[in-house]
Amino acid sequence: MNNINTIVMVDDSSLQLQLYGQILKALPNVSGLPFTSPLLALEWCEKNEPDLMLVDYNMPELDGLEFVKRFRALKAKTPVPVVVVTSELDKDVRRNALELGADDFVSKPVDAAELRTRVRNMLRVREHGRMLADHAAWLTEEVGRATASLLDRECETIYRLTRASEHRDNDTGDHIIRIGLYAAKVAALLGMSTEEQDLLRLATPMHDIGKVGTPDNILLKSCELTTAEWDVMKLHSVAGYDILRDSESVLLQKGAEIALSHHERFDGTGYPFGLAGEQIPISGRIAAICDVFDALLSKRPYKRPWPLGRVMEYIDGQSGLHFDPRIVVAFKEVLPELLEIRTRYSGVEPEDVEDTIDGNKIA
Ligand SMILES: [Fe+2]
Ligand SMILES: [Fe+2]
C-alpha cells in the first residue's frame, strides 16, 4: 500500500482520540483524522472518501450502532471497513453492529498491538476490495472492447462477402454502401429506433447476395431479358434468403428478410410471393425504393444513368404501385441527405451503354 490511508476516528473523548492517534502512528502510510462529533464525522464522509472508520460504541450525540447505520447508508457503494470500539461484551450488541455493517471490534480498554493488527488487517481487506473493483471494471471494459471488435469483424465480413456477390455487375462496391445508408435515413424519418436504423444500414446491402447464383449471360446481358431469362433472374431473392436464413445473427436474419422481400411490390404484383401492402416487411419496402432510386441514377450493363428529375418522377408515379406511399413521402423528405450520400460514395461507374431498358427491370 503506497497511498496514505485516511482513518476517520470517532470518539466523544479527545483523550481517547489522542491515544488512537499515537497507537496508529506506528503503522506505515496511515493518517488518523479525529472527530469528537459523530455528526461532523458523517458530514466529512459525505464529501470525502475515508479508508477505514474507527468508531466508539458509547457516544452521547449518536451511539456507535446508529453511526454505523447512517454511515453505511451514506457510503452504500464503497465498502469502507468499520471497526467499532466497545467495552460491551454483550453478544446482541455485537451482532446488531455486524448486521448494521460493522466489520470488526476492538475491546476497551484498547490494547495497542490489537488495535494496530485489526486496523492493518482491515486496510488489507480494503485494498483487496479496491483491486477487485478495479479488476471488475477492467474486465467490463475489455469485454466491451472485445464485443465491439467482434461486431466490427462481423460487419466487415458481411460487407466483403456482399461485395463479392456484387462484383460482377457493380465493381465499385459503392452501391451496397449507399443503399444501406439511404435505408437508415428513411428509417429515421419513419420514426424507427436507432437500433433498427443501424440494422437496416448494415443488412440492406445484402439484398442482392443471391445474385451469386445468377449466370453471367443473364446478369450481364446488355439488352432485354427473355421471359425465361427473367424467371432465372428472379430466383436471386429466394437464393439470397436461402444463403442468409437460419442464422443466430440478428444482422443476417434481417439480411435474409430483405433479400426475400426487396422485389415485392406494394400493389401485390412483385415477386417471389406477390405480397401486398403491409404484408411486405418494412425493411423490404424501404430496400425496394432505395435500390430502384440508386440503380436508376447509376449506369448498369443495360442502361444509362437517369437524370434526377426523371428518377423522382418515376418514384412518384410508382407510389402505391411499386412503393409504399408513406415511404415515398419520407423518401422525398430526406432526398437532399440521400443525394449527399450518393456524392460521398460514388466510385467509377461501368462504361457507357445504350439506355434500352426501363427502371422496372432493376433486379
Ligand atoms: Fe441493388
Ligand atoms: Fe434484387
Bound molecules: fe (ii) ion
Low-confidence stretches: 348-361
Q: What is the radius of gyration computed over CA atoms, rounded to a whole number of angstroms? A: 36 Å
Number of beta strands: 5
- Percent of residues in helices: 55-70%
Question: What name does CATH use for the topology of the largest domain?
Answer: Hypothetical protein af1432
Could you say how many structural domains there are in total? 2
CATH class of the largest domain: Mainly Alpha
Structural class per helix/strand content? alpha/beta
Biggest sheet: strand arrangement = 2-1-3-4-5
Sheet with the most strands? 5 strands, parallel
- Give the helix tally: 14
Tell me the CATH superfamily of the largest domain.
Hypothetical protein af1432
CATH architecture of the largest domain: Orthogonal Bundle
Shape: rod-shaped
Mean pLDDT: 90
Through-space gap between termini: 69 Å
Strand content: 5-15%
How would you portray this structure in words?
With 363 residues, the chain is α/β, with parallel strands linked by helices. It folds into two domains: 5-139, 3-Layer(aba) Sandwich (Rossmann fold), CATH 3.40.50; 168-361, Hypothetical protein af1432 (Orthogonal Bundle), CATH 1.10.3210. The chain is built from 14 helices and five strands. It has helices at 14-25, 38-47, 64-74, 91-100, 112-166, 174-189, 194-203, 216-219, 227-244, 250-261, 282-297, 308-317, 325-333, 335-344, and strands spanning 5-10, 30-35, 52-56, 82-86, 104-107. It has a five-stranded parallel β-sheet, sandwiched between helices. The longest helix has 55 residues, at 112-166. It is rod-shaped. It binds fe (ii) ion (2 copies).
